[in-house]
Amino acid sequence: MSAEKNAANFASHEGSVTLNPAEEGVAAVSPGEEGRAAVAGGYSPEVRARLEQDAKEIISRYPRTRSALLPLLHLVQSEDGYVSDAGQEFCAEMLGLTKAEVVGVATFYTMYKRRPMGDYHVGVCINTLCAIMGGDQIWDELSEHVGVGHDEATPDGKVSLERLECNAACDFAPVMMVNWEFFDNQTPASAKQLVDDLRDGKDVSPTRGPKKLCTFKEASRVLAGLPDELAGDGPSAAGASLEGLKVAKANGWKAPEA
Ligand code: FES
């Protein structure tokens, strides 16, 4: 939640736009064409039918309909690249909630975006360990290099940046994420190269996880609970994360019985 609040406070970066979405509206940063379509008066019948089908499947997994709000917000984000006004209305309608209830949840969590993000949403961890290992420097240089600030997208809609709090990968600090896939042990130079490669359309592989990155919309669909069958691809743990396990095995240590 703190990142959401931070978004309202950061000064606008030169060449970009005002950062307070509450004051400036969701169209403050140049969105992709698809994102714009959803803002201007709801979903087309085809899109709505498709979303309804997915939403009904998700809702059927929960004993109480309203419990499906979080995945449904990811679902509409997978359509628009952010939680649009049309998306909020769709969620309210599908779940029998007021729009105020939907907005209250959508604005609480930082993973729900209030304006269109880029195809590749790049997060730089600036929490304590990453910060002192170089995360703050990475953020400063990357933000200047790309020309956008926190939760802002480049005008071509390819990349957006976010200052992230701890990603639970402190043993690989400083860490970055792209569409929630890990890029470990970064430097300012590697971070800038990564974003340049993404903007140039080059294939980029996360340090862990699947070999190829999906888009922000595709990642949002997975978070909605509609898997892309890539969850088991690539290593999920490596390097420093496994050192303690090796020591335990070498010494015959075991966790106490429950
Ligand atoms: S502080 Fe960056 S991953 Fe924990």
Automatic annotation (TrEMBL):
UniProt GO MF annotations: 2 iron, 2 sulfur cluster binding; metal ion binding; NADH dehydrogenase activity
Gene3D superfamilies: Glutaredoxin (3.40.30.10), NADH-quinone oxidoreductase subunit E (1.10.10.1590)
Cofactor: [2Fe-2S] cluster
Keyword Iron attached: yes
PROSITE patterns listed in its UniProt record: COMPLEX1_24K (PS01099)
Free-text cofactor note: Binds 1 [2Fe-2S] cluster.
Pfam families xref list: 2Fe-2S_thioredx
Keyword annotations: 2Fe-2S, Iron, Iron-sulfur, Metal-binding
Record: residues binding [2Fe-2S] cluster: C125, C130, C166, C170
Top-rank taxon: Bacteria
Entry's family note: Belongs to the complex I 24 kDa subunit family.
UniProt protein name: NADH-quinone oxidoreductase subunit E
